[in-house]
Amino acid sequence: MNIPRFHLAFPVHDLEKAKSFYTSTLGCSLGRESDNWIDFNLYGHQIVAHLSPKDCMNTKTNPVDGDSIPARHFGVILPWAEWEELCKNLTSQNIKFLIKPRIRFENVPGEQGTFFIQDLSGNALEFKAFKNDKDVFKN
User: Fold this and answer.
1) What gap in Å lies between CA 55 and CA 51, rounded to an integer?
2) Is the pLDDT of residue 126 over 80?
3) Are 14 and 122 in contact (CB under 8 A)?
4) Residue-wise burial string across 52-87, b where 16 or more C-beta atoms lie within 10 A, e elsewhere
5) What is the SS3 assignment for 101?
6) pLDDT digits (tens, 9 = 90+) for 65-90
7) Domain 7-135 class?
8) Is the pTM of this model over 0.85?
9) DSSP calls for 81-116
10) For the chain, percent helix, then strand, then coil, each to nearest 5?
11) CB proximity list for 16: less than 8 A, separation 6 or greater
12) What is the rounded radius of gyration, in angstroms, for the C-alpha atoms of the chain?
């Protein structure tokens, strides 16, 4: 499926720590950067870490299928095999999962693999994959 790329800006406490996390932990490539922000390539999407410590905050959660999901989060829907590979990669790096990899909505439309991690500024990221890509918006 050929879809437009998205752009997302988010606050961080420390640009160097953000650079390390997004490049070393998640494998993002770097784009442009300044003293106040850094562009990253997250699976073809442009995400931008902006130095803004006062905007970094804990987020509320909502219950979804037995988990407490951070209300403010972002992420990527990956092909299933790529999602599984990322799970293994993060596990081998001893990354702490906010919500461990699991299958949600098993055996119903919308079945998905999902997990949540957090960057060093408290931003929650969700990575998911659908068994059937046509189920992404199915209810």
Assistant:
1) 9
2) yes
3) no
4) eeeebeeeeeeeeeebebbeebebbebeeeebeebb
5) strand
6) 888 999 999 999 999 999 999 999 99
7) alpha beta
8) yes
9) HHHHHHHHHHHHTTPPEEEEEEEESTTSTT-EEEEE
10) 20, 40, 35
11) none
12) 15
> Hey, which residues does 68 pair with through a beta bridge?
63
d(CA 8, CA 121): 16
**Encoded tokens for 36:** 């106040």
Do residues 28 and 48 make contact, with C-beta atoms less than 8 angstroms apart? Answer: no
pLDDT digit string, tens, across residues 27-56: 999 999 999 999 999 999 999 999 999 999
Structure tokens at 100: 């461990």
Name the β-bridge partners of 87: none
Which residue, among 53, 116, 52, has the nearest Cα to 83 in the 3D structure? 116
Q: What is the largest CA-CA distance in the chain?
A: 48
What does the alpha-carbon distance between residue 121 and residue 104 come to, in Å, rounded to a whole number? Answer: 27
Name the strand (E) or helix (H) holding 76. strand 73-77
Whether the CB-CB separation of 100 and 115 falls below 8 Å is answered with yes
- The amino acid occupying position 135 is D
Answer for the pair 97, 89: CB distance below 8 angstroms, yes or no: no
